Amino acid sequence: MASLSSSKRSPLVFVLFYFVLWIILFEFILPVNNILPKPSIVFQSFGALWEDYNLPFNFLDTVAAIYLSIIVAYLLVHFLSHFFVADRNFLTDFIRSFNWFSKFLPGILIGFLLIYWFPDSVVIEFIFAFSTSFLSLIIFLQKRIENLPAEYTDAARSLGISEKRIRKEIVWKSIQPKIFNHIYELHLYIWSLLIAFEFIKGNYGLGNIFRLALLYKDLSALFSTFIIVGVTIFLGKTVISYLNNKFAFWSL
Questions:
Q1: Rg value, the chain, Cα
Q2: What is the rounded CA–CA span in Å between residue 55 and residue 50?
Q3: DSSP per-residue string spanning 137-204
Q4: All domains of the chain, ordered by start, with CATH?
Q5: Percent of all residues in the chain with a pLDDT value above 70, rounded to a whole number
Q6: N or C: lower Cβ tally within 10 Å for the chain?
Q7: Which of 140, 144, 167 lies closest to 156 in space, CA to CA?
Q8: What global pTM score does this model have?
Q9: Is residue 6 predicted with pLDDT exceeding 50?
Q10: The pLDDT value given to residue 66
Q11: Largest Cα–Cα distance in the chain?
């Protein structure tokens, strides 16, 4: 039992270990290198990010595009969920076609087209993140509905509950915890996709800061932005887990 409990250490313990190791190695032993910057320089570079790289605007631009797109996509999927409970129709088959294409075409390729079509648009990254989130949630919803045990709906019908209510309440409530689990995984994918999109497009966002830091060979700004992105993603996952435990805590 002791060996089992010792293997379940919190990842935060290892994060602290890496942080201390970084300080020891790159602040004192290898202060001049091209691998990682000195911790003292990284902390000083946050001020430069604020002034030289316009961190507040670029940070808010990326965060707003990611989290608004996920929220709007979730609400829209909730609103449209009962349409996908019915028998297969043109709409459901149309959505399935996107699932087929997604197996062979990475999402960032669609981003290339959007950048080509709308190079100066300030909302195109939100549209890109929303479209990706919405299609991912809809495709996931369809798969879960197809695999939903029939006894849930059969029991409701035997009690005289209307089909509309079954679709809006019973089916959705059965799938909702899985939807939150999917959002938890989708969250990191949207972050990766949008940073790559912003990196290629330029102009705005944290991806643009990465692009400029590489262009100027600014290792401290690059590493500082890594830290900001990592902390933000950690906080985002924490909020998603909290919402999951609060609004979809059951498991069927």
A1: 22
A2: 5
A3: HHHHHHHHHHTS-HHHHHHHHHTT--HHHIIIIIIHHHHHHHHHHHHHHHHHHHHHHHHHHHHHH-SS
A4: 45-247 (1.10.3720.10)
A5: 84
A6: N
A7: 167
A8: 0.86
A9: no
A10: 97
A11: 74
